[in-house]
Structure to design on (999 residues):
């Protein structure tokens, strides 16, 4: 529920006060009984056993006895609501937990002076208890030199009006109430106020600083409404310290909490454990791990001393967390000793958490049998308890997956992980905070600056600290794109007029879109690139990560060397061997390559779930300044980014920068659709009518579209630049920019296709607009897959296509039958690949399930997903003239450009720098001439110039109807050449701008 608006706060207070049964006199209910009543405490045994559903029923029943009056709920309801919130929290229901904690604190706000009503004369001084329960603790001893204080269970509280107040009522109306003393378990009320503050901050994270209720509570507590010069003030100080931490005043919080740890500096009190837990949490956030560990240990002792077993759990979580960060290969301090604690008999929730902590510790100690045994202990402990469906159960699922991968059972690991990730989405505090931030931004409850700061934190890409701290949560966030929140993150930079940041955020969001389609959210790809990229592609941080990975997992190096050896041997064999002996050798090498890859991938999967950092090197992420610095003075980058509000455009060079917004995306998309239809595209592989080719209407539409996309475009603009790089988004992926008409600037309004004026290339992200390598490697071989470029074409046409392109490539090898093994493995020995075959559709949402090489289509290891598997590598240049995109259907259906976006990034993720594919399947001589034209020029010029020259040549080629299978009703006399965009604008060059090395 939204929290940060005072209006919402007022409504919620009003709802609490008016929706409950009203009684006229608290005295009628309170006389003769203590609150919270004994029935309230009946819920704690079930809670500590991990039966959170049963505990919630008990706390709900206790709430039925809550004291109510004309003034609303009394302070005893703080306890019922807080503990109900604890049940919801442990079950992973963040929203319901927040409702309960909010209710508890709203009641506190209405009764903020409750401590001032306590009759302190009868409380007495604090002394040490005669039975210190810390003596039974087995995992250590406190070094704080304090005693467990002896505090009264029941506090006498004055309730009702003072005589002066009753006189005021008599004059002005209202309820007359004489003052009475009532027994209240004030220590429990104080503890629950503190616990609600503490847990709300845990759920809200940084959002807490912008929350109205948090600020209201903090403001009240800073007034320190407690009897002066009395030990009760220490309890308020703890609450105040927790509230200060919740609003981001960390330094003040630490000072306040430290001085409130003990009464008179000697006696621990019922809130000591919470104060120590908060100090541990702060120390952990500040990376002061030794201090954090000490605080958590001390918190566990204080909690045990007051039988606050839920806080013992919290301390155990903190201790395990610190130990797994500082010494993941060792048994965390105190875990074994804790298992010998006599109190564990009835504390199944702690037992289950302890077993899970032992399981994770043993995993990192490579003691899988012991880890499995601990996991089984956790399973038995959780059996028939509702905790198996909550946070503890979800953690169990994650560790089950980790053990399965470590044990070599990839199938069980994948299944357990998928279920655990799905369950964790519902309980993740970070995802909850992201949703809440988005709601607050949309409601205009927080400023754009505050929203941007929160989004920066919540939507960040994984840091080393994220992986080391909580890899499971990090994977969950990676696999949950949060598209609406990401868009609003981008919107904050637009509203704040930060165009360069907007461009950078658009690239971050593109990366996250890509990662969300990959196994483990791109984590496996990140590990592959860190481990297998050329050294020149790694920065210092990535090199250190590689060194650490290979040191920690030496078998990876063995597998890498074996894969490199096999790849080298494969390169010595013809692309398609003709003799049986060579074919058998190739098949054997591929079988070995698959086995090595399977072992490598299994180990990567286990590492991916561990506390191991990995840089996300691909796609690269550069600042706007870094991209501009790599541009030549006359290169021009045009980047688009689509949101639900509009299309944002960024046009920049090395020195200049311009941005604008297309406010009517529907008009733009409609214009794109009209252009594609006018070019002749209606349906996949449908016949193209001759009359369409000769209709010049497309020229007018293309001119209008370009003016829509670049409203300020002036005649002659392009003459100042030598290359245009387009980063499309959404429907703009299907726009053939090279065919858009523009004024050539020579006077008389002469309009020409853009390709006549400037070389063009495309990039899937802005950071890929500049090359990652210093120069294009010299190719040593080329695999040319020969099939049917169009269904039903005869062998002569196929041979003609092959003959046309064969001479354009270095060491061409023909593949016209099924390969000896998976093409994904075989392609790692190819430098270039040309596929003269009709590809499956990738525009139906199955972006990873189509076969790039087609030669082994439908077989294991042929799909694009398999091409990303280790060993990392693939053809440097890829030509796919038989590819189909959404352009071919004139954008029918809900297309978002992902068929081209994911495909291009997927191919580049293997190491490719250049991908040439068809937006639509013209399936004739023109597309093959484009492939030939680019192929024979790449060794001497940039890909964009090669493509420009190839298109110019195609436009002069005569039409040969035998080689254009989709044409229907064409009169050769009216269509003498291929100078129609259907022929020459079908291919698309996706390229990083890498150039050949020249002397």
């Amino acid at each position: 529920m939204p929290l940060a608006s005072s209006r919402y706060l007022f409504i919620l207070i009003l709802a609490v006060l008016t929706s409950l049964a009203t009684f006229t006199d608290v005295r009628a209910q309170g006389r003769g009984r203590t609150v919270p009543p004994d029935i309230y405490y009946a819920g704690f045994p079930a809670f500590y056993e991990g039966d959170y559903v049963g505990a919630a029923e008990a706390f709900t029943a206790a709430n039925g006895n809550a004291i109510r009056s004309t003034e609303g709920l009394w302070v005893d309801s703080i306890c019922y609501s807080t503990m109900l919130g604890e049940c919801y929290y442990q079950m992973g229901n963040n929203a319901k937990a927040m409702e309960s904690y909010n209710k508890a604190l709203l009641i506190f706000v209405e009764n903020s002076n409750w401590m001032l009503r306590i009759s302190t004369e009868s409380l007495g001084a604090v002394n040490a208890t005669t039975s210190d329960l810390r003596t039974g603790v087995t995992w250590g001893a406190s070094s704080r030199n304090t005693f467990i204080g002896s505090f009264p269970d029941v506090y006498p509280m004055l309730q009702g009006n003072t005589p002066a107040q009753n006189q005021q009522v008599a004059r002005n109306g209202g309820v007359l109430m004489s003052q009475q003393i009532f027994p209240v378990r004030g220590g429990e009320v104080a503890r629950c106020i503190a616990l609600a503050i503490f847990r709300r901050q845990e759920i809200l994270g940084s959002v807490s600083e912008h929350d109205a209720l948090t600020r209201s509570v903090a403001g009240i507590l800073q007034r320190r409404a407690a009897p002066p010069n009395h030990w009760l003030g220490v309890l308020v100080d703890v609450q105040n310290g927790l509230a200060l931490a919740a609003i981001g005043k960390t330094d003040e919080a630490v000072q306040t909490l430290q001085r409130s740890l003990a009464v008179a500096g000697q006696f621990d009190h019922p809130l000591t454990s919470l104060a120590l837990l908060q100090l541990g949490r702060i120390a952990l956030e500040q990376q002061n791990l030794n201090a954090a560990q000490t605080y958590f240990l001390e918190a566990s002792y204080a909690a045990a001393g007051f039988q606050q077993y839920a806080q013992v759990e919290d301390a155990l979580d903190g201790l395990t967390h610190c130990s797994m960060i500082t010494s993941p290969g060792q048994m965390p301090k105190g875990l074994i000793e804790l298992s010998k604690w006599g109190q564990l008999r009835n504390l199944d929730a702690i037992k289950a958490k302890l077993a899970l902590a032992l399981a994770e510790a043993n995993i990192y100690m490579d003691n899988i049998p012991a880890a499995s045994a601990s996991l089984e202990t956790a399973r038995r402990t959780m059996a028939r308890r509702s905790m198996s469906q909550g946070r503890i159960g979800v953690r169990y699922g994650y560790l089950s997956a980790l053990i399965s991968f470590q044990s070599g059972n990839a199938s069980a690991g994948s299944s357990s992980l998928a279920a655990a990730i799905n369950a964790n989405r519902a309980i993740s505090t970070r995802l909850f905070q992201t949703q809440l931030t988005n709601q607050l931004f949309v409601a205009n409850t927080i400023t754009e600056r505050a929203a941007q700061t929160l989004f920066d934190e919540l939507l960040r890409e994984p840091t080393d600290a994220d992986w080391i701290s909580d890899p499971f949560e990090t994977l969950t966030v990676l696999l949950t794109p949060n598209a609406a929140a990401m868009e609003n993150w981008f919107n904050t930079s637009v509203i704040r007029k930060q165009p360069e940041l907007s461009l950078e955020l658009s690239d971050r969001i593109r990366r996250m879109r890509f990662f969300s389609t990959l196994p483990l959210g791109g984590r496996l790809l990140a590990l592959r690139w860190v481990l297998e990229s050329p050294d020149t592609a790694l920065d210092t941080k990535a090199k250190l990560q590689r060194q650490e990975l290979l040191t920690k997992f030496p078998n990876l190096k063995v597998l890498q060397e074996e894969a490199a050896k096999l790849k080298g041997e494969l390169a010595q064999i013809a692309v398609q061997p003709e003799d049986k002996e060579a074919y058998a050798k190739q098949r054997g090498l591929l079988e070995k390559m698959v086995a090595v890859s399977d072992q490598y991938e299994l180990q990567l999967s286990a590492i991916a779930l561990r506390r191991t950092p990995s840089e996300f090197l691909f796609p690269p992420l550069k600042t706007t300044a870094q991209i501009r610095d790599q541009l030549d003075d006359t290169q021009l980058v045009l980047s688009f980014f689509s949101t639900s509000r509009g299309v944002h455009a960024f046009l920049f060079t090395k020195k200049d920068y311009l941005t604008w917004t297309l406010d009517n995306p529907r008009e733009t998309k409609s214009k794109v659709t009209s252009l594609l239809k006018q070019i002749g595209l209606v349906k996949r592989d449908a016949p193209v009518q001759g009359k369409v080719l000769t209709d010049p209407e497309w020229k007018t539409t293309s001119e209008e579209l370009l003016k829509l996309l670049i409203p300020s475009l002036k005649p002659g603009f392009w003459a100042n630049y030598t290359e245009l790089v387009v980063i499309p988004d959404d429907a703009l992926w299907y726009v053939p920019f090279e065919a858009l008409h523009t004024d050539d600037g020579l006077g008389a309004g002469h309009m020409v296709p853009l390709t006549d004026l400037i070389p063009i290339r495309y990039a899937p992200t802005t950071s890929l607009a500049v090359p990652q390598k210093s120069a294009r490697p010299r190719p040593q071989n080329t695999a040319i897959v020969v099939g049917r470029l169009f269904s039903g074409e005869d062998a002569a046409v196929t041979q003609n296509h092959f003959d046309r392109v064969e001479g354009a490539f270095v060491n061409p090898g023909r593949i016209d039958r099924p390969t000896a093994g998976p093409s994904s493995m075989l392609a790692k020995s190819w430098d270039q690949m040309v596929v003269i075959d009709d590809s499956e559709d990738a525009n139906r949402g199955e972006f990873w399930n189509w076969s790039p090489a087609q030669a082994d289509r439908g077989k294991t290891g042929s799909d694009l997903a398999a091409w990303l598997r280790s060993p990392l590598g693939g053809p440097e240049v890829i030509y796919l003239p038989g590819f189909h995109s959404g352009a071919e259907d004139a954008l029918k259906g809900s297309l978002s450009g992902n068929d081209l976006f994911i495909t291009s990034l997927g191919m580049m993720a293997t190491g490719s720098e250049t991908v040439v594919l068809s937006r639509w399947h013209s399936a004739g001589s023109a597309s093959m001439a484009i492939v030939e034209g680019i192929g024979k020029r790449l060794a001497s010029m940039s890909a964009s110039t090669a493509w420009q020259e190839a298109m110019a040549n195609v436009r002069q080629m005569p039409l040969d109807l035998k080689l254009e299978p989709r044409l229907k009703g064409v009169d050769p006399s009216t269509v003498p050449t291929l100078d129609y965009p259907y022929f020459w604008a079908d291919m698309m060059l996706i390229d990083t701008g890498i150039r050949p090395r020249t002397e």
Summary: The chain is about 50% helix and 10% strand. Residues 1-32 have pLDDT under 50 and may be disordered. Residues 930 and 950 are 5 Å apart (CA to CA). Residues 580-608 form the longest helix (29 residues).
